Amino acid sequence: MNVRQKEDSHRSDQASPAPAPVRDVDVTLVHEWNNGQLSAHQDYLVGEEPLEIRVNGHALSVTMRTPGHDFELAAGFLFTEEIISRSEQVLSIEHAPECKPTERGNIVDVKLAPDVEWDFEKSRRNFFAASSCGICGKATIDAVRARGMRPLKTTLRVNAEAICAMPDKLRAQQQNFARTGGLHAVGLFTASGELLVEREDIGRHNAVDKIVGWALHENKLPLAECVLLVSGRGGFEIVQKAAVAGAPVVASVSACSSLAVRCAREMRMTLIGFLRGSRFVIYCGDERLK
């Protein structure tokens, strides 16, 4: 299944119902107070829309996301939630053709191969992701941690100077953040510091899923030779998704949570926080740094 080709072909298929224009960036009129003066001007807003992910026609999850790379997001979500384990299990991903005009472009339907075994009712009860934190709607923390994940095995070594250069490289590719100031970004890097792919979203967990969906399509999973860099803090679900994707090193520009650190230690990951300038904090896995 070619995620991007399916998405591109849908956009160009004039015979299919065209989704309503859902945009990653919008424009609005604002009034700015500055040093005693009030002025009106146009300002950019980061796009935020609900995305309903359906599997074989049945609604599974709703996440608040920034429109763009929706098919990668859906595929990555199914992979990091361990509903699928390889790209061949996804037969197709399409925007739902029959829905309300206000829902067009905000519903994707994933058709899975017959051999995919999963408990739909249990999964549907456990999933609801909000833009601030994808884990909020899980039934319990234990349900998330009881995933049967195994500690990562990799001989990857990363140069500390290469890690320090990653935030600037990521920021240089964040076109929408430069306009709105309201987007998170995730970048996938090689051990030498080369940026492989960047994705933006109002939710960090969505940006990670978009990266994983891209990697699934490119046959680059597991991410055993890569570094995952996230803007903002390093939370538990970021570490959990990275572990499922096999990424041994996760770095964030802000703090990491206690549950994220415990999970990273259990998975034998390298977890880095406060990555700013020439300084960062290593919470665990310092043996991978050189």
**CATH fold label of the largest domain:** Cytidine Deaminase, domain 2
Radius of gyration: 19 Å
| Proportion of residues in extended strands | 25-35%
* Total domain count: 2
User: What's the CATH H-level superfamily name of the largest domain?
Assistant: Cytidine Deaminase, domain 2
**Count the helices. How many?**
9
| Run of helices and strands | HEEEEHEEHHHHEEHEHEHEE
The residue fraction in helices comes out at 25-40%
Q: How would you describe this structure to a colleague?
A:
The chain is of the alpha/beta class and 290 residues long. The protein folds into two domains: 3-12 and 48-143, Ubiquitin-like (UB roll) (Roll), CATH 3.10.20.10; 160-288, Cytidine Deaminase, domain 2. Helices cover 29% and strands 29% of the residues. The protein contains nine helices and twelve strands. It has helices spanning 3-12, 70-80, 120-126, 141-145, 160-172, 175-180, 204-217, 236-245, 258-266; strands at residues 25-34, 37-46, 49-55, 58-65, 90-95, 107-112, 184-190, 195-201, 226-230, 249-252, 270-276, 279-284. The protein has a six-stranded mixed sheet, sandwiched between helices. A hairpin with a 4-residue loop joins β7 and β8 (195-201). α2 packs across α7 (204-217). The radius of gyration is 19 Å and the shape is flat. The two termini are 38 Å apart. The model is unreliable at 8-20 (pLDDT under 50).
